[in-house]
Amino acid sequence: MPKSSGSSSGPPKKKKRKLDKKQSNKKKSSSQSELSTVCNITGIGGGDGQGGLAGDNIDDIWGNELDCLNELATAQAGGSPSANIKDTTSAEESQSLTPQNPPPTLKEIPNLRVELARHLQVETLSIFLLQACPGLRMPTFERWLMDSKLEESDRVQSIAENWVTDPSSKLHFKNQKKKYGRAAQHSEENATQGREDARRMKESRILLDAEKSTIHSEGNKLSDVDRLVMKARTLIDPVLPGNPLESDPSSTRLVDEIVANKLKLNKSDETITKEQAEQIVSELLSRCSESVKEIQQLQNRFGTYQQFGFGKKRNKNSSGSSTSGLVRAEWPSGDSTTTKKSSPDDSVCSLSYITTKKKSASASASSDNKDEAQKKTKPFIVKVNGQHYHKLRHLFDKTYMSTDSSVTKDQMTHAFHAALFAIIIRYSTLAGAQQLNDLRGGGMQGAIHDTVFDCFTKWFGTSPHSSGTECFASPFNANIAHYYSAFPSPDIDGFFGSQGDFFRLDAKTLRPGWYEANPPFSPGVMQKMAKRLMELLDIARERDIDVTFIVVIPSCQVDSNSSKDGEDASNERKKKKKRKKQKHDSEEDEPSNTNALTNAIHHSALSSFNMLVKNCSSHIVLSKRDHGYVEGSQHLRPTQFKESQYDTSVIVLRSKRCTEIDAEAFEADLREAFKSRHLIELQQRRDCN
What we know:
21 helices; single chain; 5-stranded mixed β-sheet; alpha+beta; 51% helix
């Protein structure tokens, strides 16, 4: 009986193996066909003329993708000198800081293929908007992108809070089934409300998935609202809004800016109506939703994180390539050693990303196929200034000082290069994805001079060694150790010491000192910042904490009910305008609607501006061209400084108004620290040449 049972069990096992192989082959072919359609839509398809795959190997696809994206790298033929940035962070301060979330592990670096695909999608969206509206500039697209993404985050936050207060509302979303076909269509009368309900349903499902994964990872312990929302942020796109609608405030502001831009051009043959602007915005929103779906499909196929294969033995008989290509750093001297101290800070580091390709049988048999494969696999290259390279390496090493000993020094370097490559692509995507082409965009990421931080420390520091906090910064422009940014841990900024998201700052962890808030000049961000600052000020007064918020934003018109400081500032601006009119009589013929776009933006941000001015202890207005900023794309540009084209307001909010300072001396120091360095920098470059 044992022999007969053993002989009879042999053939079924072989048949089972054959069936498993057939099923695996079917899965591969189906996944490749799905990916081919996605690549065809995104412009990453093969050269077969039908939008299909160029070869059977998945890595061949990304050779063609990098070939498609290589045109961005070819625009960077020349190098740019480094920026003179001071890293004022110290090891003692970094050890005392406690971020909102622990830094991500080295295995959680975002997938570079997904980052490149998102960059290409956002570039397509920005090109569409700017070409559909001649004369419109990149900051308009940046404002819409940031505000719409912030609105999506607020909606997810409100749903999570509603679940805590009313648990029955969560059961409603769990029991409701997804509609398809005609059932998913809405009547014309309730189209807007139906689309908003459908969007709320999608975002609720994301929260349900986040709750399941959180409970699964932490046992049966229910997560709080903050932890649930942070987990949900990992399931949605970090840059693009998933389901924007025309009724969103960001969309309506975009329509107003498009109409105001046409008034600014003052050309009768290029006038645009509000209905036409709404059609352009509607098409933009539709394309944005499709882009998010395509990116999600790519992420599901290739994974969320970059795979290095650390600590894994490579199996020679394994089919396919499970390890993505590494990022290589090259210096002008030709030496790729990143730890070389002799590398000058004014040099340019080139980061090249090439996918790892597995040799096929046909390629190994024919040398012609080898040459064709090499031509298809072109690297995607980004360049970064030497000082920014070393600055981010310092932040990266400081974040992982107590890293696992199993990771070697070379592996740590490879991980840093991947994180650096990803963060350059991510912030270029946030700026409209044309920053690597012709340095368009990036103005929203501008920063104040390092001397301004020294001024704040001098006048508002709780101790001689206090360096304060930056509420809106990035690893590129951060000047002090304690800073908040747009993509905190577990996202890309967490690798470089970001403390978290300022809007999610826990009031319990509010510490005494000064906080510098220089947000992106976007109405939605500024409005939410103003409300949050008022909440934190009330909490600080209740807890008797000496807190100072220094807000740096563009000046807007102030209502008559504003504070006395605001009235004095507006009167001063009116006097300066009269003097300029007397000096430039020839400019009186300019049309009155040249500032239509600026007025539309200021009108959107006026409520938040008045809120800050009414509650401030001091308000200082800096005239345009008399002060300057640091370029937002300083890590890519040949110059670091720029002159301000608009008046800037420095608004000081204090929880304890009894602590007085010498207002005149502070204003003098502030104006000196804010002086533009653009002309001085240009003169230094001429002298060097």
